[in-house]
C-alpha cells in the first residue's frame, strides 16, 4: 500500500502535501481486491497493497525495496523489463505472464497489466502493475483443453484472422496432417478463397452474436480429398470478456451426404419405375380398350348376322 512506502522511497507524487487526487489514488490502490504494486524502471518494488502480501505470503519488509527478480525467474525478469519498456513506449502493457514464487515456495500463475507511472513533467518513472491470480482460470482452461482434446468431433481454436491456435486429435485424423502442419497455419491453407471469406464472415457473426451455426466448409485433406463439413463456432474471450478468437466444431458430413445421394438415386429410380409403370399401364389400358371395342364389333356383327338369318328364314 502507498502508506507503507519508506521515507527513502523515490517521490512519486508531491512530497510535502499530497493532492486530493493522489490521496484518492492511494485509497483505491490500498483497498483494491486485486494485487497492485508500483515499481521503478529497474523492477524494484516501491509500493504494494495488502492483496500482494496476501498473494505472496511475505511481510511488507520482505517485498518493499526488493527487486521483482527475487520472486520470479531470471527469464521472467527479462520479460518484465521488456514489458516495462513497452509501458514506457506505449503507456501500458496487458496480459504479460508472471509466475511469482510465494513464501511457501508455491509458484502462482498470474497475468500482469501495467500502466506508466509519470512524474509531474509527464516523464515515465515507473509502472503501476495489477496482477491477476490465474490458478482457477488455468484449471478451467486445462479442463477445457482436456475436453477439447478428447472430444470425438474435430475441434479447433482460431484467432480473429483465421489462424489456427489449437486443435484436437480428431482434426488431424480428419485432415491427415501432422500438428506442425496445422498449428499456426491459416484456414485458407485448407479451404478455398471463397470459403475463407465465408469463414471470416462467420467470425464476424461470432463477434457480434457470440455464435454461428451450420456454416459450410469443405477442407482439403493431405491426400487432396475434399471433405464436406459444417461448422458451429462460439466466441473465445479473454479474461476481460473481449472476443479474441473462436472455438470451432466441425462435423464430417460425408456419411450424411452419402445418405442424401442414395435417397436421390432411389428417388430417381422410383420415378423411372413409376414412369415405366405408367407407360405399361397405358399400353395395357389401350389394349383392353381395343379388346372391348373389338368385342363390341364382334357382337354387332353377330347381331347383324342373326338378323340377316332371321330375315332369310321368312322369305
UniProtKB/TrEMBL annotation:
GO biological process, one term: regulation of DNA-templated transcription
InterPro entries per UniProt: Biofilm_reg_signaling, PAS, PAS-assoc_C, PAS-like_dom_sf, PAS_fold
Domain of life per record: Bacteria
Protein keywords: Coiled coil
Annotated coiled-coil segments of the chain: 253-311
Keyword Coiled coil on entry: yes
Matches recorded under NCBIfam families: sensory_box
PAC domain location: 211-265
Protein name in UniProt: PAS domain-containing protein
Domain PAS, first and last residues per copy: 28-91, 140-210
